[in-house]
């Protein structure tokens, strides 16, 4: 594969922004691509993928790179990917054999898997033997998965429509609204996206709305709705009949939910900003179904957000765990007696998942609920993101 100086420069300066100015990888990539409008689709793909992969493998790259120079680090990454370096001044003192020899001497899992030591210890302590394979899987590149908007089309129709545009997809077993792209590409530009035929949503994430067993006409609350990914899926499952109240503490996310609802042809979503506990208390006993897609460490979605491992710390995980228990305790009574409450995270840590549900069920409010089932989705088993979904029934 041939390297071009301008795109490699783009990668190097993006890496500088991410690691030296502590910026988020997705934002930096977006800005880099926006400020280089002349780059073609291949250049854009190369820059985005190289930045994400360098972020993913950063600790390993640092361990084998001969210096702190960012061109050396890019070159090291390129060698580790099995490519040949061009004869550029920037790579003069970089010796592929030395990089490979250094690499072969590393045996520590945290370095080989390019994760912080604390994360490796936490993973092993909480997931035991399955951690080794889980972290290996979470370091692989994510597949691009679409959720078919069944309000506008069917999976088969969308598959054919995309095929006409040269976009090959396949339907994964067990996920009835999902289509996986055979080859990574920017799918936001396709006219079918602009027409609201699909959203980008991992297959594991698509299990969340499905677990609420919604029916047309129901009243549903999505209490941590964010930009509305699950709300939109719920609306499609409800055939756009009934009512969904999409709530969040961040108004700008709800603005996005509204925009996406319009594109999806969804009219049953109402958004409401959570301004305090009063907003929640007013909704006591009001919904047939409540979804709590709570804030979490995001360790189940490392494939698509590799910089999470560099931004997280044991302290931030402990903090988010306190918030998770507060949310389930404070929001649980919005569901009517006899209704269903779903607690979900995109984490693989039991401390954010089953331990939280067990703690809730053992508490005073938990006495009014029973666990119907829970689903611990490990990335190594699903082939998609790691997730946790617990379905609780409020006693009648
Ligand atoms: C995992 S994200 C939700 C993703 C969203 N459901 C989707 O499918 O796109 C968790 C959300 O919880 C919100 N949040 C944080 N604290 C909250 C609170 N106390 N009450 C409700 N939502 C909260 C965050 O702003 C964030 O949007």
How do the helices and strands line up, and which of them pair or pack?
Elements: H1 5-20, H2 25-34, H3 41-56, H4 58-64, H5 70-80, H6 96-104, H7 109-112, H8 117-127, H9 130-138, E1 145-148, H10 155-164, E2 169-170, E3 178-181, H11 191-194, E4 198-200, H12 206-210, E5 219-222, H13 229-237, E6 243-248, H14 251-264, E7 269-273, H15 277-281, E8 287-293, H16 308-311, H17 314-331, E9 335-345, H18 354-362, E10 369-377, H19 379-382, E11 387-394
Parallel strand pairs: 5-6, 5-8, 6-7, 8-9
Antiparallel strand pairs: 1-3, 1-4, 2-3, 9-11, 10-11
Defining key terms:
binds S-adenosylmethionine, globular, S-adenosyl-L-methionine, MeTrfase_RsmB-F_NOP2_dom, about 400 residues, 7-stranded mixed sheet, Rossmann fold, Alpha-Beta Plaits
CATH H-tier superfamily of the largest domain: Vaccinia Virus protein VP39
Distance between the termini: 63 Å
Overall, the morphology is globular
Radius of gyration, taken over Cα atoms and rounded to an integer in Å:
23 Å
Mean pLDDT: 97
Strand residue percentage: 15-25%
Bound molecules: S-adenosylmethionine
The first-level CATH class of the largest domain is given as Alpha Beta
Classify the helix fraction into a percent range: 40-55%
| Distinct helical segment count | 19
Instruction: State the strand order across the main sheet.
Output: 7-6-5-8-9-11-10
Low-confidence stretches: none
Q: Please name the CATH architecture of the largest domain.
A: 3-Layer(aba) Sandwich
Structural class by helix and strand composition: alpha/beta
Number of strands: 11
Q: What can be said about the biggest beta sheet?
A: 7 strands, mixed
Number of domains: 3
């Amino acid at each position: 594969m041939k390297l071009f100086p301008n795109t490699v420069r783009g990668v190097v300066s993006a890496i500088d922004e991410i690691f030296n100015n502590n910026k988020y990888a997705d934002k930096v990539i977006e800005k880099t691509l926006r400020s280089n409008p002349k780059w073609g689709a291949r250049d854009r793909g190369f820059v985005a993928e190289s930045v994400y992969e360098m972020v993913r493998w950063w600790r390993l790259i640092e361990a084998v790179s001969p210096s702190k120079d960012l061109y050396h680090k890019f070159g090291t990454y390129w060698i580790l990917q099995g490519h040949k370096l061009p004869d550029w001044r920037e790579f003069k003192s970089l010796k592929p054999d030395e990089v490979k020899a250094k690499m072969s001497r590393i045996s520590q899992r945290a370095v080989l898997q390019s994760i912080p030591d604390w994360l490796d210890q936490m993973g092993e302590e909480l997931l035991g033997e399955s951690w080794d394979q889980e972290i290996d899987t979470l370091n692989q590149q994510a597949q691009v998965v679409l959720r078919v908007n069944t309000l506008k089309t069917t999976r088969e129709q969308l598959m054919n429509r995309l095929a006409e545009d040269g976009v090959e997809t396949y339907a994964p077993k067990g996920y009835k609204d999902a289509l996986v792209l055979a080859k990574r590409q920017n799918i936001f530009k396709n006219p079918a996206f602009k027409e609201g035929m699909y959203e980008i949503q991992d297959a594991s994430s698509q299990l969340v709305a499905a677990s609420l067993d919604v029916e047309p006409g129901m009243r549903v609350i999505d209490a941590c709705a964010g930009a509305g990914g699950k709300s939109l899926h719920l609306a499609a499952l409800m055939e756009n009949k009934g009512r969904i109240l999409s709530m969040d503490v961040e108004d700008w996310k709800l603005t996005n939910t509204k925009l996406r609802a319009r594109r999806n042809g969804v009219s049953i979503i109402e958004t409401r900003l959570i301004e305090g506990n009063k907003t929640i208390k007013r909704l006591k006993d009001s919904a047939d179904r409540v979804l709590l897609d709570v804030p979490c460490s995001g360790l189940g979605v490392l494939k698509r957000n590799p910089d999470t491992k560099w931004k997280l710390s044991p302290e931030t995980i402990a903090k988010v765990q306190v918030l998770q228990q507060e949310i389930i305790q404070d929001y649980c009574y919005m569901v009517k007696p006899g209704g269903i409450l779903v607690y979900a995270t995109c984490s693989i840590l039991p401390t954010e998942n089953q331990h939280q549900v067990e703690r809730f069920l053992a508490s005073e409010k938990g006495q009014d609920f029973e666990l119907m089932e829970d689903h611990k989705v490990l990335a190594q088993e699903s082939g998609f993101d790691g997730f946790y979904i617990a379905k609780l029934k409020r006693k009648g």
